[in-house]
Amino acid sequence: MHPGGEHERAVRAAGNAPYAAAWRRAWAFPDPEPPADRLVEADRWADELRAQGVRRAVFVTGGGNDALADAVDRHPDLFLGFAHHDPFAPDAAAELERAVTVRGLRGLKLFAPLLRGPLDHPDLDPVWRTADRLRVPVLVHVGHYGSAGGLSSSPHDSPNHLARVARRFPELPFVVPHFGVQHVQELLFACWSCPNIHVDTSGSNQWVRWMPYRLTLDDLFRRCYETIGPGRIVFGSDSSWFPRGYVGRYLDDQLRICREMGMPESDLQAIFAGNAVRLLGLPT
């Protein structure tokens, strides 16, 4: 079997299943259901968001640009979507243009560990120029990919690569989810260098348990708040599967941390709504 083939992935998944099960048990999350029809799933998400009082939600991946755009079109009052195609494909810039101007998607999502080259590769310049002209944000995942058993590292996922791009496109907003995962130091210095780089808070952020030094979600919020400020921190829920649905406890935990830090309501409004509204170009 070739590296990364189905057999290898199955072996890794089986070997790391206890970690995933323990994580779900610790958070009282049920096991994920098998994948369902995408439009049926879209209707279910719409019901879930309305029940939770969520006014708008952004889906950053969804089976391809057209599949996700179809789901967004089904509930345009609730859903927004991001393009998520291969940026190294020959027609990547044209596909981003089509996804935004024709299909109505509102940004671009990239998984840096899965790319065939670094973010600052010259072949990606047409994509960056198109995103810059369209004024859409780019969400760039750096750090390990997937849960236990996934990719632990990659030569293409450093925030330093992103910083070199962000410096050349200073008006193009970039957002790095999960506080940059294991690249916290590099991400903070990238933010110091580039005011167009933002930090996203999404997920349980249990990766902190694997760091060689003590690091908590409280520490991450405090360090980002004290350095880059509330205008570049963006809340994300990382809600992705049923029957778990919308993960309100992530929101509750993060709000508690911010309130215990003594943040004024204006900063809470920015982090948990306003910054996303601005980046997405939504009416306030």
TrEMBL record:
Keywords: Lyase
Domain Amidohydrolase-related: 28-282
Gene Ontology cellular-component annotations: cytoplasm
Entries under Gene3D superfamilies matching the protein: Metal-dependent hydrolases (3.20.20.140)
GO molecular function list: carboxy-lyase activity; hydrolase activity
Domain of life: Bacteria
Entry-linked InterPro entries: ACMSD, Amidohydro-rel, Metal_Hydrolase
One family name in Pfam for this protein: Amidohydro_2
One example of a Gene Ontology biological process annotation: secondary metabolic process
Protein name stated in the entry: Putative amidohydrolase (Aminocarboxymuconate-semialdehyde decarboxylase)
